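ingest -> validate -> predict -> emit
validate: passed (alphabet ok, no gaps, 77 aa)
predict: started
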Amino acid sequence: MIFTRCRSCIDLSNEMIRYCKERGLTAHVMDFYNVDFDDNSFHAVYALNCLLHVPKAEIHQVIKEVTRVIKPEGLYC
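emit:
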C-alpha cells in the first residue's frame, strides 16, 4: 500500500481497498508496476512488506516506478 498522510492507498486486493475506504481513506486497486499517479505526487511512500512479493528480476522496475511518484525530497519507507 502507498500512504501519504493517509491520503492515498493502493493494493491489489479489492478486500483491502474496501477496508481502507470504510475507514475514510482514498484507495485504489493498483500494483507497483504501473502506479497511476503523476510524477512527484507524494512526499512519502510507505510499502510495508510489499516488496517481498516482487520477483528479484523485477525489483529494479518496481523501485523505479515507485521512486517516480515521490517528490525529490521525499521518503521511501
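The radius of gyration is 12 Å.
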